[in-house]
Amino acid sequence: MPTYEYECQACRERVEAVQKFADPSLTTCELCGGELRKVFSAVGIVFKGSGFYKNDSRGSTKTSTSASTSGATESPSTTTPAATPVAATPAKAPAASAD
Q1: Which 3 state secondary structure label does DSSP give 78?
Q2: Cα–Cα distances in Å, from 54 out to 50, 51, 57, 59?
Q3: pTM for this model (two decimals)
Q4: Rounded Cα–Cα distance for residues 54 and 19 (Å)
Q5: How far is 4 from 40, CA to CA, in rounded Å?
Q6: Nearest to 9 by CA among 44, 38, 47, 41
């Protein structure tokens, strides 16, 4: 169930209420009896990236076949084998300035 925030127009007191969609809106402030109005805020959740829209969830057959064939045509000289050890080079100390 969503949480709604209301603000009293008379005393500016803010009230939160957990209500169903079908429940009627609150109209009177419990503290002063003034009129309550819903406060609209920014959305609490934002979906970023791919996969959240209908066109993101399905790839065409062209895209999937071209992606799979491009990986197979790479030459071995452009890729580094995983078993090749990489030697660590020690960091050099900065040279002292002659000021």
Answers
A1: helix
A2: 10, 8, 6, 10
A3: 0.44
A4: 31
A5: 8
A6: 38
Residue 5 has pLDDT above 80, yes or no: yes
- Type of residue numbered 44: G
Contact between 36 and 19 (Cβ < 8 Å): no
Q: For the chain, which residues make up each domain, given as ranges?
A: 1-57
C-beta separation of 36 from 9 below 8 A: yes
CATH code that applies to domain 1-57: 2.20.28
Lookup: tokens for 80 = 């580094």
pLDDT > 60? residue 52: yes
Distance CA 54, CA 67 (A): 21
How far, rounded to the nearest angstrom, does the alpha carbon of residue 6 sit from its chain's CA centroid?
27
